[in-house]
Amino acid sequence: MKFLNDKALERLRGSGVPDLSGTRYELRELIARGGMGVVYAADDEKLNRRVALKVLDAASANPDLTQRLLREARVLAQLEHPGIVPVHDVGALPDGRVFYTMKFVEGLRLDQHVVKVDSLPERLRLFLRICDAVAFAHARGVLHRDLKPANVMVGPFGEVLVMDWGLAKVLRETSESNDTVFARFAKENPGDEETQATAVTGHGTVLGTPGYMSPEQERGETEKIDVRSDVFSLGALLKFVAAGTEGNKGQRLPRALQAICEKATAKQPELRYGSVSELASDVSRHLDGLPVLAYSENILERLVRFYKRHQIAILLITAYLVTRFLVLYFFHR
Amino acid sequence: MNKILLGLLLGTVLGAIDGGTAYFTPSVRAMIVGIVIGSTFKGLIAGIAAGIFARKVNSVPLGILFGLFVGFVLALLVALKQHGYYFEIILPGSLVGMIVGWATQKYGAGVQTKHA
After folding, report:
1. Which residues of B touch A319 (CB under 8 A)?
2. Domain residues of chain B, as ranges?
3. What is the pLDDT along chain A (333 residues), one digit of tens a residue?
């Protein structure tokens, strides 16, 4: 076994490139750099597969961020869902930095993907898959808090993966009482102050991305953050997804869809959808040509929607009636 | 309701209504009962055929085309037997077939696969 001297260790720390000696991984390339950590592509030599390895940036590594990265890995490990990137392993580098590996997702970021999808219904169905993953996390008592196009990957087969749970908040109270991530967390980490606190982040700390962050998140009111904050981010994401390609940017969205976006991104949390499922259900209703909760339509809009929904039947019945009338008129005068 | 039963019921009802429109043609009004029975039977056959097709093929356009084909063939047979009224029988009969073909694709329960 070869040991690195302090000088070499310092040099590695300085360059920021993680030293993976002693682990089962071999570093390949840098994928992304975030506020807290860096994600690399690496090869798992034991299982002979490509993984994504997230490690703290050498310059910013400190016990607090180490705990945060560990927490992120543990939260992700509890969220087993096809729409959430799975964690494979957690470990430590020779320099002491913590890392975790997850599925290597080949595909495009949502913002790169939607510009290639011309069909609005197809883009909305994509959005619904994001909602599925987030709703699942909420059911397990976890808020994402940083939903934005750059944090959603779309795979080559259309699979959607919600990434970067680094700002996730574990709720104290969930619908599943004791069997929640938080409950397990609290048991496993009795000394972890952030886990024991209602919010992972203290009051006044602003975490998130402008434009996708809810107003309460922007104000740093972490105690007010609940599922409706993610609903806000999803509403902003819906606006982005619905706007779609550059060619569609100037086009007006259907009023019902606009109303859904507005309701989801209302400044006051109580005016938003109460849950991600409610938001997704309204988008589904819009896709199915049904009235949505966010918008009360007038009689003309109702008729247009009815026609669009039953277009083929209406055309066939009209064709039959017109044919019958013409046959009677022209052949039996 | 399964697709075959839906096709049977809808085809029967639409066939009866289609036959009933003969009432507005004074020259055949006397034969209205026979026409309604014949048209109902025609609709019933088209409905069952469209229902069976819908269970095997899941495509609205193909369902409509199949309905058109069945409606056309059955109406043609009736018209040939009548030695006349080709347009009066074939055009609406084909359209009834299309409606039933569409409805059986859109509604009704398909074949359910059982898992061990």
Report:
1. 95
2. 3-106
3. 445 555 555 555 555 678 888 889 998 989 888 767 889 999 999 999 999 999 987 666 678 888 888 888 988 898 999 999 999 999 888 888 889 999 998 889 999 999 888 889 999 999 999 999 999 999 999 999 989 998 999 988 889 999 888 888 887 544 443 344 444 444 454 444 443 333 344 444 556 677 888 999 888 887 888 999 999 999 999 999 998 766 566 678 889 999 999 999 999 999 999 999 999 999 999 999 899 999 999 999 999 999 988 999 999 999 999 998 888 887 765
| Residues 6 or more apart in contact with residue B76 via CB below 8 angstroms | B86, B90
Q: How close, in Å, is residue B63 to chain A by CA atoms?
A: 12
How far apart, in whole angstroms, are the C-alpha atoms of residue A235 and residue A218? 16
ipTM of the complex: 0.86
Q: Does the beta-carbon distance from A317 to B99 stay under 8 Å?
A: yes
Question: How many Cα atoms sit within 13 Å of A186 on the Cβ side?
Answer: 16
| Chain A contact for B83 (CB, 8 A cutoff) | no
Q: Which residues of A form the catalytic set?
A: 146
Note the pTM of the prediction, 2 decimals.
Answer: 0.74
Q: Is the CATH number of domain A9-103 1.10.150.80? A: no
Domain boundaries, given as residue ranges, for chain A: 9-103, 108-287, 300-331
Superfamily of A108-287 according to CATH: Transferase(Phosphotransferase) domain 1 (1.10.510.10)
Residue of A nearest to B106 (CA): A313
Q: b vs e for B55-90, b when ≥16 Cβ sit within 10 Å of the residue's Cβ?
A: beeeeeeebbebbbbbbbbbbeebbeeeeebeebbb
Q: Which of A88, A83, A98, A74 is nearest to A43 (CA)?
A: A88
Residues of A in contact with B98 (CB under 8 A): 316
Q: Which of B35, B95, B96 has the highest number of chain A CBs within 10 A, making it the mutation to test binding with A? A: B95
Cβ-contact A98, A70 below 8 angstroms: yes
Q: Which helix (H) or strand (E) holds A100?
A: strand A98-103
Q: Which positions in chain A have a beta carbon within 8 angstroms of at least one beta carbon in chain B?
A: 312-313, 316-317, 319-320, 323-324, 327-328, 331-332
Cβ contact A328:B21 at 8 Å: yes
- B115 contact A CB<8A: no
Nearest CA in chain A to B23: A328
Please list every residue in chain A whose beta carbon sits closer than 8 Å to the beta carbon of residue B68: none
- Chain B residues touching residue A317 (CB < 8 angstroms): 99
Distance between CA atoms of residues A129 and A126, nearest Å: 5
